Amino acid sequence: MSSYQLPEVWENPSQMGGAWGGLNQPTAGSRFEQELPVGEKEFQIYSLATPNGIKVPIMFEELKELGISVDYDLYKIKIGDGDQFGSDFVAINPNSKIPAMIDQSGDEKVRVFESPSILLYLADKYGKLIPQDFAKRTEVLNWLFWQTGAAPFLGGGFGHFFHYAPEKIEYAINRFAMEAKRQLDLLDKELANKRYIAGDEYSIADIAIWSWYGRLAQDKIWDKAGIFLNVQEYQNLQRWTEEIANRPAVKRGLEAEYKEI
């Protein structure tokens, strides 16, 4: 049994422990002055090759595959070192999360933060990877926002307690493994009669969901998490995962080089 006694009012502990304990704080805002590099290309992306981060280069490479002339500078934000708390990054994303992007293709620079927002922004800007039909567009958005709401239970919940937490807590692992399995089963059932997550057309919903759940199905997020969750039992999800993984644009997006800041 845990010896933890719940206080009446929570106070920030002096030491959290674990992989991210030293970075977490209960306050927002920048922690140090920072000057991020700004390249010449239309889009400036500040990110890292995490499940959320890979969505953006994949999206750009898919646009190129569709004949859109678009280019980007991709800079590495080392979240383990706290780069996301620098003043320039916080000016782009006050929430201090990757990825963050500046569109400098027009007369006025536009900041875009949170990966689903970036995907939707680019889809709408170029009229690609999202249906123009209102009902079909709504179905894509249903799944885009599903991923936005579901993935924190997978990453911040299951992934944290399975992989990052300084101690293995049975209740926490069981709680979030249960939810992760439920989400995987949901996707598997949805993909039983559909080629892609929102229907017959590949869309930003597939990019968003594959970057988390496809990579998990490949066991490429947390060491042995795929084995632990028995991801091979979800055959429809595995079929979809493999098809998207073999897309040339997806391969290029995963291989994109991040410049040092």
Could you name the key traits of this structure?
261 residues; EC 1.8.4.-; Thioredoxin-like_sf; alpha+beta; Glutathione S-transferase Yfyf (Class Pi), Chain A, domain 2; Glutaredoxin; 9 helices; oxidoreductase; Glutathione-S-Trfase_C-like; single chain
User: Which oligomerization state do the chains in this entry correspond to?
Assistant: single chain
Instruction: Write the element-wise H/E pattern from the N-terminal end onward.
Output: EHEHEEHHHHHHH
- How far apart are the termini? 46 Å
Look at the helices and sheets and give the structural class. Answer: alpha+beta
Radius of gyration: 19 Å
Mean pLDDT: 96
Helical stretch tally = 9
Please provide a written account of the structure.
The chain is an alpha+beta fold and 261 residues long. It has 2 domains: 43-129, Glutaredoxin (3-Layer(aba) Sandwich), CATH 3.40.30; 134-249, Glutathione S-transferase Yfyf (Class Pi), Chain A, domain 2 (Up-down Bundle). The chain is 45% helix and 7% strand. It has 9 helices and 4 strands, in the order E-H-E-H-E-E-H-H-H-H-H-H-H. The protein has helices at 55-65, 87-92, 115-126, 134-164, 170-190, 204-217, 225-228, 235-245, 248-255; strands spanning 43-47, 72-76, 100-103, 110-113. A 4-stranded mixed beta sheet has the order 2-1-3-4, covered by helices on one side. Helix 6 (204-217) packs across helix 8 (235-245). It is globular and about 60 Å long. 33% of the residues are buried. The mean pLDDT is 96.
